[in-house]
Design goal:
The protein has seven helices and six strands; from the N terminus they run H-E-H-E-H-E-H-E-H-E-H-E-H. It is α/β, with parallel strands linked by helices. Helix 2 packs across helix 7.
Length: 268
């Protein structure tokens, strides 16, 4: 069955910037300080070897499909361990195969839609997006909801004031070539029309906690974990928690267990 690839473009205006008076700010809405970036880098560097190995899909060939979208300046190598964790949990985990995520581009949603078509086997695809990848996943779900089972975001700053909810905004704007409040395609504020699960952490060194957990009406469920920003794709206990919570969430949303076949031993 050939899916409909027509992209929807209806979007609502972004909210007005929050009152930036420090006395009125919720601490959870404030991005971590500069040193948080340094601690994330120090945490991640020793784990770069985890990205070695074939980039193809992992997990049982008949497992339900999942597409993993990397964060800003990350690649499929960066999400290798996350895809291994999903594969061990029984998913057929696919890389995005679009190189380094250098920020939102005019053709980002078209490329992701094509990637979705390549994975599509008649079953809706689980989207798992880390950081900026989660924001892309939410937009893709608005564009082609019929092909998507659910959206899972990992430390994604989709909520609040985009000027202040991360500590890398200036670098993002320089690298991506656009203002965070003026992306090259329409951005939706409301929840995607599919089940949506958000993971967030107060230990995140990049993203404000409130930005990653979302406000009322922006997600179906938000779960706090004890993880650094890089830990979503590198820390085994965190990834194990993520995969188990995904299964629980889908059971709640769909009224039955998703029927995964976890791999008991061996690497996927």
């Amino acid at each position: 069955m050939k899916p409909d690839r027509t992209l929807k473009s209806d979007a609502v205006a972004a909210p007005e910037p929050a009152n930036l008076d420090p006395a009125n700010l919720d601490p959870d809405s404030v991005a971590p300080p500069f040193w948080g970036r340094l601690s994330e880098l120090a945490y991640h560097l020793p784990r770069v070897l985890a990205g070695l190995g074939p980039l193809g899909p992992r997990g049982p060939e008949d497992g339900p499909p999942a597409l993993v979208i990397p964060g800003f300046m990350a690649t499929d190598r960066t999400t290798m361990d996350l895809r291994r964790a999903l594969a061990r949990a029984g998913w057929r985990a696919h890389p995005w195969l679009l190189g380094t995520n250098g920020g939102a581009k005019k053709d980002t949603l078209e490329l992701l839609s094509s990637r979705l078509d390549a994975i599509w086997d008649g079953r809706p695809v689980l989207l798992v997006g880390w950081s900026l990848g989660g924001m892309f996943a939410r937009e893709l779900a608005h564009a082609v909801p019929g092909k998507i089972r659910a959206v899972v975001t990992l430390g994604s700053p989709f909520s609040g004031d985009y000027k202040t909810n991360t500590n890398i905004r200036e670098f993002y704007e320089w690298k991506a070539g656009h203002d965070v409040d003026a992306p090259p395609f329409p951005r939706h504020v409301e929840k995607p029309p599919v089940p949506t699960l958000a993971f967030w952490s107060r230990k995140d060194g990049i993203v404000a906690p409130a930005a990653a957990r979302g406000a009322a009406g922006e997600v179906d469920k938000a779960i706090e974990v004890e993880s650094r920003h890089s830990g979503f794709t590198a820390d085994r206990p965190t990834m194990s928690r993520v995969t188990s919570e995904i299964r629980r969430f889908l059971t709640e949303q769909e009224g039955k267990d998703p029927g995964l076949k976890p791999q008991i031993s061996g690497k996927p």
